[in-house]
Design goal:
With 208 residues, the protein is α+β, with helices and mostly antiparallel strands. Helices cover 55% and strands 12% of the residues. Strand 2 and strand 3 form a beta hairpin. The chain is elongated and about 65 Å long.
């Protein structure tokens, strides 16, 4: 059977138009750079679960840390809404939080590189899971497991991968380089599953 472990860092993985037509536009700074949201916060040291919860939320949004307790995201309507909600939650924890909308006057290339590196790490995880998926389907051939139950399980696994990808793609507003390779990996998985499905139909005595 194909692997079903779809661990997803701080959160998890859909539709891929050529130019991401449904991707939310980001704000541009007056000088042609990007507008950024910067959250500066402090949470109580105890209980430690509060700090961990905030860290998971920030990572789940796709934000990067500029330094301890200073997180940044490209400014979009959705990101601003999410950061405002997180700020309120931090304050409710008896912490402090300030949300800024700002330009980067110097060093923006480094910020963009860090943001895209975070997305590429996520894309690489998905690619690794695609390799696991392909290996799992290959095992079905070796074991001659051509049943609807196996097909359904593999289909569910691929759907999880696609959903995971869609979540990463949605926050990849600066078009990280790893996106194209991830799309190719998912397309390969889709084709292999189609071939496996055809074999299942054949073994079950059905035609397409």
């Amino acid at each position: 059977m194909a692997p079903t472990d779809q661990s997803q860092r701080a959160d998890q993985p859909g539709e891929e138009p050529p130019e991401d037509l449904h991707e939310e536009p980001r704000e541009k700074a007056a000088g042609g750079g990007h507008r950024w949201l910067v959250l500066i916060y402090r949470v109580p040291t105890e209980p430690t679960r509060l700090r961990a919860a905030v860290w998971r939320r920030i990572k789940g949004l796709g934000a990067i840390y500029l330094q301890n307790s200073v997180a940044a995201l490209p400014r979009t309507v959705a990101n601003e809404r999410a950061m405002r909600v997180l700020r309120k939650e931090i304050i409710d924890m008896d912490g402090t939080a300030h949300l800024l909308g700002t330009d980067v006057l110097a060093g923006e290339a480094d910020v963009i590189a860090a943001f895209n590196a975070a997305r590429n790490d996520e894309y690489e995880e998905i690619i690794d899971r695609c390799k696991d998926f392909l290996a799992g389907v290959e095992k079905e051939y070796v074991a001659e497991h051509f049943t609807y139950a196996e097909l359904e399980e593999n289909d569910e696994d691929l759907t999880k991968l696609k959903n995971w990808f869609e979540k990463v793609r949605a926050r990849d507003v600066l078009s990280a380089s790893g996106r194209a390779e991830t799309v190719e990996a998912l397309e390969r998985c889709e084709q292999v599953l189609e071939d496996y499905a055809a074999r299942v139909y054949l073994e079950e005595g059905e035609s397409r």
